[in-house]
Amino acid sequence: MPWLQINARITDTEAAEMEQLFQSLGAVSVTLIDAEDVPVFQLDPGTTPLWQNMKLSALFEAKACVKSLIKRISGTSRLSEQDLEIEEIADQDWERAWMDDFKPICFGRRLWVVPSWLQPPEPDAVNLMLDPGLAFGSGTHPTTALCLEWLDGCDVEGKAVIDYGCGSGILAIAAILLGADHVVGVDNDPQAIIATKSNRDMNGVPAEKLTVYLPGVGHAAADIVLANILSGPLEELTPVLTGLTRPGGKLVLSGVLSEQTESLIRSYQPWFDLEPPVIRDQWVRITGTRRA
């Protein structure tokens, strides 16, 4: 069955009202996407950050009356007929179309991240099976890729690791599969805790090898501390992440834009010997060794 889709550009202050309006008109789904390629991030648990300028797409059954919908939209909102884009969407296997967007990706020499419904292209490699989901971290973002490549090139055999801001658990699970002895995952989003545990089980990682917590639980200092978050929280967490890194241990920071690098370096330089930043697509990875 084909579908009728109505698109409109709106602002973040209109989002809730417009979503409610289109749902009241019988839309089977309402989607909000970025209209200007500007990233947003969830800084605090329980919040729903939005782009300032968005494209709203409302999907209706094909039998819906277009003229009636346009009249009701223009009569109850600032949107006129000229603001609305009407298109017919052919029916398709939406789940299959979504799955086709994800392919196995190699990080470094031996680490692959493979969607769970596909066969690993290199069966003898280190294959991390993953279902892309609500929690951030599928390996496609430069910050995650930078951390995965670092792990692949690092000797993690027998090491204790902390993944602070674990999201989907992708870095924590990769560390275990690459030989880490034990990994602690920490995240302030309960959804991330659920996702990490689910992905841990999918990869056959024993629960005692990868334990996951909300912040506030005390942990022993680790050989490697990974934190792929954002520059602001990373600066605020300087004493926490420093304390979690044992003397001689490695700290890996990512989620940082290139223009934020110097400020973050100043925060951690008193305690770490920092290596030159690695930059990809304006995103940066900072690595350092904790001084005694």
Please mark out the parts with pLDDT under 50 across 5 or more consecutive residues, or reply none: 38-49
User: In CATH, what is the homologous superfamily of the largest domain?
Assistant: Vaccinia Virus protein VP39
Radius of gyration from the CA trace? 22 Å
- The CATH architecture of the largest domain: 3-Layer(aba) Sandwich
Shape: elongated
Give the % helix: 25-40%
**Mean pLDDT level:** 86
Number of strands: 15
Structural class by secondary-structure content: alpha/beta
- What's the main sheet like? 8 strands, mixed
Tell me about this structure.
There is one protein chain. With 292 residues, the protein is α/β, with parallel strands linked by helices. It has 2 domains: 3-91, Alpha-Beta Plaits, CATH 3.30.70; 139-290, Vaccinia Virus protein VP39 (Rossmann fold). It has helices at 15-24, 66-76, 94-100, 142-153, 170-177, 190-202, 231-236, 238-244, 261-268; strands at residues 3-11, 29-34, 53-61, 85-89, 105-107, 111-115, 126-130, 160-164, 182-186, 210-213, 222-228, 245-257, 272-274, 278-280, 283-290. Strands 8, 9, 10, 11, 12, 13, 14 and 15 form an 8-stranded mixed sheet that branches. It has a 4-stranded antiparallel sheet with strand order 2-3-1-4, covered by helices on one side. 32% of the residues are buried.
